[in-house]
Write a structure and sequence with these properties.
This protein has helices spanning 2-20, 38-46, 57-63, 84-89, 101-113, 138-148, 173-188, 207-212, 222-225, and strands at 28-32, 51-54, 72-75, 94-98, 118-124, 153-160, 198-200, 217-220. By secondary structure, it is an alpha/beta fold. Strands 7-6-5-4-3-2-1-8 form an eight-stranded parallel beta sheet. The longest helix is centred in the first third of the chain and has 19 residues, at 2-20. The protein binds pyridoxal-5'-phosphate. Pyridoxal-5'-phosphate binds next to strand 8 and helix 9.
């Protein structure tokens, strides 16, 4: 079942790439595995997937030893500073959810301690100005990038957003366009140490317009593993 879902997702990503004149290799599919059991992760692995995303450190900690070592774990959820050490020690390859200088400083410190020199982080942007969402507002993004850029051990690789929940994917196209423009605008400022290239945007409900608007990472959970049940 997971492999059938993956096939269907893959076809839609490919079609979106074709429409946008993009190479399929320019978009990374991140399988969002939160709350899902190891057997389903293993199915995705067996179908060739290697990029997995979790929103809680604890889930990376217990799942990582259960899967082959070549899985790349991404931290995509809101992160408290007291959990950063665990994220780095457990080998997460990227943190997608940086929205404060305070958090970035802690990541920087832990990376320096671990001997890492350019650990990739993404700045989470609340593009639709939703009260319930984490992330820096678009207007405040450049200032935060300028503050974080000089910190040692880390590198701002790009921007991330979770667009509003919608039944109509097309309604989120404006937000994906806005995030891409924000990345382009900030890159044009030629801030020292800042040349962003990742756009982590698009989930099960809206990844097609996200890819058409330039997503380099789509984060898909439900569309691969089915509905999540929280106990
Ligand atoms: C859960 C989650 C996703 C995946 O959502 P789906 O709608 O299940 O695809 C993507 N990004 C983040 C940050 C998440 O927490």
């Amino acid at each position: 079942m997971v492999s059938d879902n993956l096939k269907a997702v893959e076809e839609r990503i490919q079609a979106a790439c074709d429409r946008a004149g993009r190479e399929r290799s320019s978009v990374k599919l991140l399988c969002v595995t939160k709350t899902k059991p190891i057997n389903l992760l293993q199915e995705a692995y067996d179908a060739g997937q290697r990029e997995f995303g979790e929103n809680k450190v604890q889930e990376i900690v217990w799942k990582r030893p259960e899967l082959p070592a070549d899985v790349h774990w991404h931290m995509i959820g809101h992160l408290q500073t007291n959990k950063v050490k665990q994220v780095i020690e457990n080998g997460a390859v990227m943190i997608h959810s940086v929205d404060s200088l305070h958090l970035a400083k802690e990541i920087s410190k832990r990376c320096v301690n671990a001997g890492l020199t350019d650990y990739p982080i993404l700045i989470e942007v609340n593009v639709a100005n939703e009260e319930s969402k984490f992330g820096v507002l678009p207007d405040a993004c450049e200032a935060l990038v300028r503050e974080i850029a000089p910190l040692p051990g880390i590198r701002i690789a790009g921007l991330m957003t979770s667009a509003p929940y919608t039944e109509v994917p097309e309604t989120n196209r404006q937000y994906f366009r806005q995030l891409r423009q924000l990345l382009v605008d900030i890159n044009h400022k030629k801030i020292d140490n800042v040349q962003m290239y990742e756009l982590s945007m698009g989930m099960t409900g809206d990844f097609v317009p996200a890819v058409e608007e330039g997503a380099t990472i789509v984060r898909i959970g439900t569309g691969i593993f089915g509905e999540r049940h929280y106990s």
